[in-house]
Design goal:
This protein is of the alpha/beta class. It has helices at about 10-25, 65-85, 110-120, 135-140, 160-180, 195-205, 220-225, 280-285, 295-300, 300-310, 315-325, 325-340, 345-355, and strands at about 30-35, 40-50, 55-60, 95-100, 125-130, 185-190, 210-215, 230, 245-250, 265-270, 290. The longest helix is centred in the N-terminal third of the chain and has 21 residues, at about 65-85. It is globular. The structure holds nicotinamide-adenine-dinucleotide (NAD). Nicotinamide-adenine-dinucleotide (NAD) binds near residues 163, 194, 196, 235 and 302.
Length: about 350
């Protein structure tokens, strides 16, 4: 299409304005686009911060019903990675990428090689890892064209078991802090029994917790419940189920005006990124007396693991760092209690302090 054939509507202009303003307000950074007609690749790399070091961030390869949604997602996620690296004191910046999943990929090898070239053009400021819709096999293809990749099948593979380990330690800290007990007999409702949810159920069951699970994939939920002696509930019922901990391990923005009033849990701690639909939902949880364990802190195990793998750091050292999320969360909870502020507000303040040069 010739450029002059397309005139933009004012709502298209508004979307563009809104997203650029959003990125500006969050303190970006580089946002790069690649469209490759030959392979069908349409991808965005967003680098929020590279001051603290090269950024590691997953590549999400999912269906988006608009470019705006993809751009908004990558902006939010890249910003979240800066916060995650900062709260764990990792020498990493924050970045993420998204690929708009096409209906058909004619040649997966060419598709991911093209994406790998895009990563390579960032000259190491962005190191790609797997995420929703990508696998170690895709990282292997990317590794053919760039060294700026981790989570390949020879280089660590799936980080989810480590994300689940860090999350389980965080849940232990939250339960100790709020309820003064260990996990024995504690009821945890897990939303999403995919990679992280499944491994989390295993960790929790080993410590004597009682598992309640849901997933839109019934087979996956049933498998998890059978293996760990849990109970399955419908996706809609998970918010209002009687439990001690609600662990969102599926989607973002699930803590909102509709769901928060339904919660019976006294703790929310899960792996899903960007759980709070809006900042004020952190305040709402605080007002309801529900302890919110910040998502980007409790799900940092995967990043710590991927980072250690990339730098060839001993796995024992990485595991000790992941176990350390217990203390990191404890410190944030103590500060929030001492200052009588919502945990979500305090954790943002700490990140701000660490990201400000
Ligand atoms: P996944 O895709 O393997 O699992 C997600 C599961 O949620 C799937 O089984 C899916 O069917 C289910 N699901 C989707 N919508 C649902 C709904 N409405 N109700 C119930 N279940 C639903 O993803 P994952 O790797 O397990 O990651 C889970 C979340 O944690 C994501 O938000 C991801 O971004 C985040 N996260 C993952 C990692 C990691 O190491 N994998 C690290 C940090 C953050």
């Amino acid at each position: 299409m010739l450029l002059q054939e397309k005139t933009f509507t004012s709502s298209e202009h508004n979307d563009c304005n809104r997203l650029f303003k959003y990125a500006e307000d969050l303190g970006f950074g580089d946002i790069k686009f690649k469209i490759d007609a030959k392979t069908g690749l349409r991808a965005i790399i967003a680098i929020h911060n590279k001051e603290r070091g090269p950024a590691i961030g997953g590549c999400r390869h999912i269906y988006y019903d608009s470019y705006d949604k993809a751009l908004e997602d990558v902006i939010r996620l890249a910003h979240g990675m800066s916060s995650k690296a900062a709260i764990c004191n990792l020498p990493r910046g924050g970045a993420k990428s998204v690929i708009l999943r096409p209906t058909i990929i004619k040649d997966r090898e060419a598709f991911f090689r093209s994406f790998g070239e895009f990563v390579h053009e960032q000259q190491g400021a962005y190191i790609v890892a797997e995420d929703s819709g990508t696998s170690p096999a895709d990282m292997d293809i990317i590794a053919q064209v760039t060294p700026y990749v981790t989570c390949t099948s020879a280089g660590g593979g799936d980080p989810s078991p480590y994300t689940a380990l860090g999350l389980c330690r965080s849940i232990e800290a939250a339960v100790k802090f709020k309820l003064g007990s260990n996990l024995n007999g504690i009821r945890v409702a897990i939303q999403g029994t995919g990679h992280v949810g499944y491994y989390l159920a295993r960790e929790l069951a080993n410590l004597g917790a009682k598992i309640i699970v849901t997933d839109i994939d019934q087979t996956s939920a049933n498998r998890c419940a059978t293996e760990f002696d849990g109970q399955v509930v419908s996706p809609d019922a998970i918010y209002s189920i009687e439990c001690d901990v609600f662990a969102p391990c599926a989607l973002g923005a699930i803590l909102n005006d509709t769901t928060i009033p339904l919660l019976k849990a006294s703790i929310v701690a899960g792996s899903a990124n960007n759980q709070l639909a809006h900042k004020h939902h952190g305040v709402m949880l605080h007002q309801r007396g529900i302890l919110y364990a910040p998502d980007f802190l409790v799900n940092a195990g995967g990043l710590i693991y991927a980072s250690a793998n990339y730098d060839h750091i001993d796995l024992k050292e990485a595991k000790a760092q992941i176990e350390g999320l217990y203390q990191s969360l404890w410190d944030v909870l103590e500060r929030a209690k001492a200052e009588n502020k919502p945990v979500s507000e305090v954790v943002d303040e700490i990140v701000e302090e660490r990201l400000t040069p």
